[in-house]
Write a structure and sequence with these properties.
15 strands; 10-stranded mixed beta sheet; Alpha-Beta Plaits; 421 residues; signal; 13 helices; 5-stranded antiparallel beta sheet
Length: 421
């Protein structure tokens, strides 16, 4: 145990007069919580000091029950997080009510702050990553890794992995038509090719395929993977196209394999099946998985609904869908959402737009691990485009769309219970 944690525990014991007689309740409902996003940061901060937290699923928007200490109260005040100090008797009453079979609620123990890795290249890019923005805003620490670290098996050091806005197929994000003359695109391509050669690969597509397989093994071995936007479908496509050249000459210098569509192996993917790859380099899509070009919905009516699960029988999807609203604003991305008929039957659709026939937020199990795919780029910027300024989360401290990301961050901290359905 390091000195920081020892000092905190001593402080906790010496200066918290009611440590064993009271609790801190951090409500997560719409009416009483002023900063939902930073509330996750407080919870992580507490776990990082080797104290356990109870996540009260479906109770006041998915509230958190923390041990009481003056230092925790002060941290809530500093970060602008609403909290209530409740007696031991009141906490016991809440837990008793939650335990009742008559209510769809559950108390899940969070035991350890997960170590977080964000897969992202170094240097400035012409887009922002929603996950790194919300982790920074919530004051949750993370480390960045990229291809060299992945190939060196450094993923094993982490509990949770986020995939950056990435193209695992080696087609440079399918930005060719619009941005092939842009300085950032030319530089990005040059850097990617140099990295692939330095790591021992002839092509970027071959190197990214190897990266995808390493990430697959990380999940199968028990890791937690979260991906957004183009990292979702491009990851599955890379797995299914292992050993197959699906890149046209402007991407890798030679032609694609003849009839490559018929060689795609859907049994290798995490989430998707039966998709048709987009052959044209001038089309800003990877495949038929994405609904961006097929959507018939306006911004004002673009919402997706969160599914409801049994908290006691299915705590995992219940954790991942905790929110203060069941209806969340939609948002676009290179991969905006997923075609329902191209999602495997063993994958849970946790958020969907039924009117448009699309899935937005999906989750599944692979081996001993878990994955979550979340369509779209930025939950508070409907049509975030290349070069647009980043979202200022101070303006969106109660964002339901960003809450879904942070649910996934805390998920590995939970004491595991076997899923029943």
């Amino acid at each position: 145990m390091n000195l920081k944690k020892i000092a905190f525990i001593l402080f906790f014991i010496l200066f918290s007069a009611n440590a064993y007689a009271s609790y801190i309740l951090i409500p997560m409902d719409a009416e009483t919580q002023s900063n939902h996003l930073k509330a996750y940061g407080i919870t992580y901060w507490t776990l990082d000091r080797e104290l356990k937290v109870k996540w009260l699923l479906n109770y006041r928007g998915g509230s958190f029950l923390l041990p009481d200490a003056e230092i925790i109260q002060r941290e809530c005040q500093i970060r602008g997080v609403s909290f209530e100090v409740i007696s031991d008797a009141k906490a016991a009453q809440i837990l008793e009510e939650i335990a009742s079979p008559a209510v769809n609620q559950e108390a899940v123990v969070l035991e350890k702050a997960p170590k977080i890795a964000v897969y992202t290249p170094t240097g400035l890019k012409p887009w922002d990553d929603a996950v790194t923005m919300v982790l920074t805003y919530a004051e949750i620490p993370y480390e960045t890794i990229y291809d060299e670290e992945v190939l060196n098996d450094e993923l094993l050091l982490y509990d949770w992995l986020h995939l950056h806005h990435e193209d695992f197929t080696g087609q440079y994000g399918k930005f060719y038509r619009a941005y092939r003359s842009a300085a950032w695109y030319i530089e990005d391509k040059k850097e990617a090719e140099a990295l692939a050669k330095r790591l021992g690969y002839n092509k970027v597509s071959e190197e990214k395929s190897a990266i995808s397989l390493k990430i697959r093994d990380y999940v199968v071995g028990g890791g937690f993977m979260f991906a957004m936007c183009s990292a979702t479908d491009s990851f599955d496509i890379a797995l299914s196209a292992e050993g197959i050249d699906i890149c046209e000459p402007m991407f890798d210098g030679d032609g694609s394999d003849p009839g490559y569509q018929n060689k795609i192996d859907f049994s290798k993917t995490f989430a998707f099946k039966d998709y048709i790859l987009e052959r044209s380099p001038n089309v800003y899509e990877f495949s038929s998985i994405d609904m961006t070009q097929k959507r018939q919905i306006s911004k004002t009516t673009d919402y997706f609904s969160l599914m409801e699960y049994s908290a006691k029988w299915d705590p995992i999807p219940t954790m991942l869908t905790q929110n203060h609203t069941a209806l969340v604003k939609g948002f676009m991305g290179q991969t905006t959402s997923f075609s329902r008929d191209q999602i495997k039957s063993n994958v849970l659709v946790m958020g969907e737009n039924r009117t448009n026939g699309e899935a937005k937020y999906i989750h599944g199990i692979k081996g001993k691990g878990f994955f979550t795919f979340y369509g779209g780029h930025d939950p508070e910027d409907y049509t975030h485009r290349v070069g647009d300024p980043k979202t200022e989360l101070d303006l969106h401290p109660t964002s339901p769309g960003y809450r879904l990301i942070l649910n996934n961050v805390l998920f590995p901290a939970a004491k595991k219970k076997k899923q029943k359905t």
